[in-house]
């Protein structure tokens, strides 16, 4: 009590002097249970429980429709590493060298992954096993993302409550539980980094807002721990490490600097950097990487501002700058003020340049540069531009993945600019943005920008839209219900007044005509009252219908659009029945059981993780895409004629080649449609590959009019091998491609160095075996025997009386190179009876 009284008195004294208080006293709000009562508290908990159950259930359509299986491509590597971690332990996991990937280079797994996802699944697996509830590690991986989605709904409720109100938190939790953009990365079986990273990101933002509001180091350390989990789970932590510094800088320049902000940011930067460096994949990049430069610059800047603020006594940036410029430097240095500023700027620029070019400050990564310049990847790094997730976001994706949130979010922005409401039962806002409102506005603004550049970052935008959209619709509902309550009170008061007037008129004995006239006036007033009721009721009805439509759209998207695993394709027959194409697992199962354990399989990088996870085979390239030259080599082999491609395969000891072909059943994601990216990536390293050579008349064609370079390349020959023998439609010729809608351009050919080993049921996956080379030593022995026979025949013909100049002479420079050529020569000599002459 003494401390509080002392601080209060000191703050009052400083307020009289128009100075900022040294210590800000933040009064704790009454708990929800005390303020709203038991019924409201229980009702809110019930709603949150229903939202969490909804978030989990809407994501298990894939298990219900198909089975418990890992989806897509990247999750198969995560599943494989989790299996290794759960079986071998942490020490083996950190030191695991995977020789089955990127042959012959290999991969150090422990130092090239974000281990948070694997550790989380393994911890759940070990915990359940310790509690005598053993499950398969696959089940822990399959249901991990839906579980964290339900927890994320709780986090979003608290974030919305912290920024605006409880109603906003409930709407935000309900929205994020079923938003399609988030469902796409968190369905059951989608065992990818984002499944836990979005939860970690929102939790970090929630704890950051609490730390800034309270100035407590406890909340700041909790924020750092959440940030550490985010760093260990996903490379998207770069978004956090840039959003928080930008927010801090804005707060300082907006004149909202406080000691609470200083404590929160300094704790976050120092401990967050130290914790991030503990992840082997990040390590010293947390200091040397250019993507972390903003956080370091803001850390230096906020400490410098705090020092100058203490020296000058000013409270704003402009006041500090003005006081700094007003100092007479001639007493200390014989240099003008402008010259001093120029020298300081030049020295700072030179320092950054030296750090950059000496390698102490690493360059921006390709994906980050693409966010700043959307055309960068297409110009310089085609491997990044070839990924569909890295393409610019079309407008249709915003409406499909966010739906009515695109309407509610602008309303939420307006509510944030107006400030949070004074109390739960009053709509009147503070008319002053606080720290939390500014953070929510900045979060949404940056997320919209980045999501517009890259489709994948729609996942970052979804929570921001749910948060701000929840604030918008909550404010609208509160306004309409308050208007409705106020209108009902006004009507009740008018009715009571009219009733009192009637009683008074009866007592006074007025005339009937006068009463009729007044009755007509009362009817008109009732009509006006009906209009007063209709406006808020119509608004409530419209918002309720929009919410219902949103929930129906999200349920449909979660079921139909995002719950189909890529390894099992589904289609509809003409009668409406469902057809499943299980070609991928069929082909991988064949590879696993019918080839050598250490067989090397060459394919495009998209299928590397799946082959290593399901077929248990050694691959040349996979979805990690860390070595552009190695991927370009595979692209060069695929886009070259067979005679050139076999050289690459022999060099890398390839046993099998796998290609994806969709011409039989209309699967558009096959390698023929990806072929131009193989050409572009391969041409970036091997200049002999030129993209215009694969176009005919400026068009990419696979029919008879196709470019010769395309019709003769190895990928084309493998994809369409024996395809001319098949009819894909009764009214189309044999060899008709259902994806490109043309007849295949080259028919009836054989491959010299490859032979067909396996083709799946629907021709989606085709595997070719590389023919073994002739035994060179045996060939030499046969060739030597043939040469001996040839020499004997030549000597006999010489003894028979041939002239010296007619003796057969074996050229020394170019000897016969095959047994068949020698045998033909011997037969020709025997039939003619004459000596072979050159």
What keywords describe this structure?
single chain, 838 residues, mainly alpha, two-stranded antiparallel ribbon, 13 strands, globular, disordered C terminus
Describe this structure in words.
This protein has 838 residues and is mainly α. It is 61% helix and 5% strand. Strands 8-7-9-13-12 form a five-stranded mixed beta sheet. Helix 2 packs parallel to helix 9 (166-178), helix 16 crosses helix 17 (317-325) and helix 24 crosses helix 25. The protein is globular, with a radius of gyration of 37 Å. 35% of the residues are buried.
- Beta content comes to 5-15%
Coarse morphology: globular
Strand neighbour order, sheet with most strands: 8-7-9-13-12
Alpha-carbon distance between the two ends = 117 Å
Number of distinct beta strands = 13
Alpha-beta content class: mainly alpha
Output the radius of gyration. 37 Å
Mean of residue pLDDT?
82
Draw up the topology in text.
Blueprint: H1 2-16, H2 32-57, H3 61-65, H4 74-88, H5 90-94, E1 97-98, E2 107-108, H6 116-130, H7 137-142, H8 144-163, H9 166-178, H10 180-183, H11 194-214, H12 217-231, H13 237-253, H14 259-276, H15 285-288, H16 293-312, H17 317-325, H18 337-357, H19 366-372, H20 376-380, H21 382-385, H22 395-402, H23 405-418, E3 421-423, E4 426-429, H24 435-453, H25 458-508, H26 512-561, E5 569-572, E6 578-581, H27 583-594, E7 600-602, H28 608-615, E8 618-619, H29 628-638, H30 642-651, E9 656-660, H31 671-685, H32 708-711, H33 714-719, E10 736-737, E11 742-743, E12 754-759, E13 765-770, H34 776-799, H35 819-832
Helix pairs in contact: 2-8, 2-9, 4-6, 4-28, 8-9, 8-11, 9-25, 11-12, 11-14, 12-14, 13-16, 14-16, 16-17, 23-25, 24-25, 25-26, 27-28, 29-30, 29-31, 34-35
């Amino acid at each position: 009590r003494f401390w509080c009284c002392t601080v209060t008195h000191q703050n009052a004294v400083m307020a009289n002097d128009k100075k900022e208080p040294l210590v800000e006293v933040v009064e704790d709000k009454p708990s929800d249970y005390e303020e709203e009562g038991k019924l409201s508290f229980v009702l809110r908990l019930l709603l949150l429980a229903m939202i969490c159950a909804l978030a989990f259930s809407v994501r298990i359509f894939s298990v219900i429709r198909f089975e418990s299986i890992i989806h897509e491509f990247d999750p198969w590597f995560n599943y494989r590493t989790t299996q290794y971690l759960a079986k071998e332990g942490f020490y083996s996991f950190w030191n695991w060298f995977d020789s089955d990937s990127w042959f012959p280079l290999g991969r150090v797994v422990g130092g090239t992954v974000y281990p948070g996802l694997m550790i989380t699944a393994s911890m759940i697996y070990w915990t359940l096993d310790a509690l005598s509830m053993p499950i398969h590690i696959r089940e822990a991986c399959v249901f991990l993302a839906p579980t964290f989605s339900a927890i994320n709904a709780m986090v979003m409720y608290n974030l919305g409550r912290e920024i605006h109100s409880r109603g906003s938190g409930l709407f935000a939790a309900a929205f994020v539980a079923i938003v399609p953009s988030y469902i796409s990365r968190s369905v059951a079986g989608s065992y990818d980094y984002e499944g836990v990273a979005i939860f970690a990101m929102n939790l970090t933002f929630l704890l950051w807002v609490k730390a800034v509001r309270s100035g407590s180091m406890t909340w700041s350390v909790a924020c750092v721990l959440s940030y550490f989990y985010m760093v260990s789970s996903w490379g998207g932590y770069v978004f956090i490490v840039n959003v928080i510094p930008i927010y801090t800088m804005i707060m300082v320049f907006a004149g909202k600097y406080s000691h609470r902000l200083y404590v929160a940011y300094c704790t976050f930067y120092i401990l967050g950097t130290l914790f991030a460096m503990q992840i082997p994949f990040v390590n010293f990049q947390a200091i040397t990487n250019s993507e972390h430069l903003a956080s370091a610059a803001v850390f230096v800047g906020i400490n410098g501002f705090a020092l100058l603020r203490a020296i000058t006594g000013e409270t704003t940036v402009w006041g500090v700058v003005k006081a700094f410029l007003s100092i007479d430097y001639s007493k200390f240095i014989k240099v003008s003020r402008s010259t001093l500023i120029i020298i300081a700027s030049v020295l700072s620029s030179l320092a950054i340049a030296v750090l950059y070019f000496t390698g102490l400050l690493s360059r921006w990564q390709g994906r980050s540069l693409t966010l700043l310049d959307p055309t960068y990847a297409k110009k310089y790094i085609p491997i990044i531009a070839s990924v569909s997730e890295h393409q610019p976001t079309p407008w249709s994706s915003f409406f499909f993945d966010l739906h009515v949130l695109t309407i509610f979010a602008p309303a939420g922005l307006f509510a944030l600019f107006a400030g949070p409401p004074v109390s739960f039962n009053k709509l009147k806002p503070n008319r002053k943005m606080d720290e939390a409102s500014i953070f929510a506005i900045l979060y949404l603004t940056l997320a919209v920008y980045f999501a517009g550049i890259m489709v994948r970052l729609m996942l970052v935008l979804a929570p921001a839209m749910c948060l701000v959209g929840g604030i918008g619709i909550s404010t609208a509902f509160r306004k309409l219900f308050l208007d409705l309550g106020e209108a009902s009170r006004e009507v009740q008061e008018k009715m009571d007044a009219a009733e009192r007037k009637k009683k008074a008129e009866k007592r006074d004995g007025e005339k009937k005509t006068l009463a009729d006239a007044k009755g007509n006036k009362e009817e008109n007033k009732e009509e006006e009252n009906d209009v007063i009721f209709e406006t808020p009721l119509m608004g409530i009805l419209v918002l309720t219908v929009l919410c219902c439509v949103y929930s129906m759209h999200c349920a449909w998207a979660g079921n139909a659009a995002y719950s189909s695993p890529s390894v099992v394709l589904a289609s509809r027959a003409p009668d409406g029945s469902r057809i499943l194409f299980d070609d991928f697992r069929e082909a991988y199962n064949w590879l696993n059981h019918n080839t050598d354990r250490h067989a090397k399989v060459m394919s495009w990088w998209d299928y590397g993780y799946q082959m290593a996870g399901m077929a248990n085979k050694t691959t040349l390239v996979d979805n990690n895409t860390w070595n552009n030259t190695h991927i370009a080599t595979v692209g060069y082999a695929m886009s070259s004629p067979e005679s050139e491609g076999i050289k690459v395969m022999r060099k890398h000891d390839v046993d099998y080649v796998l290609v994806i072909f969709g011409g039989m059943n209309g699967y558009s994601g096959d390698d023929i449609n990806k072929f131009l990216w193989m050409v572009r990536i391969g041409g970036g390293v091997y200049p002999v590959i030129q993209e215009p050579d694969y176009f005919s008349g400026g068009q990419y064609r696979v029919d008879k009019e196709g470019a010769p370079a395309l019709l003769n390349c190895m990928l084309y020959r493998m994809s369409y091998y024996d395809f001319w023998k098949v009819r894909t439609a009764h009214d189309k010729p044999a060899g008709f491609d259902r994806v490109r809608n043309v007849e295949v351009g080259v028919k009836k050919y054989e491959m010299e160095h490859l032979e067909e080993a396996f083709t799946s049921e629907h021709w989606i996956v085709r595997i070719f075996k590389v023919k073994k080379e002739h035994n060179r030593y045996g060939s030499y022995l046969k060739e030597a025997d043939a040469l001996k026979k040839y020499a004997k025949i030549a000597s006999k013909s010489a003894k028979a009386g041939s002239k010296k100049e007619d003796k057969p002479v074996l050229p020394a420079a170019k000897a016969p190179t095959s047994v068949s050529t020698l045998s033909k020569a011997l037969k020709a000599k025997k039939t003619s009876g004459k000596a072979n002459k050159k």
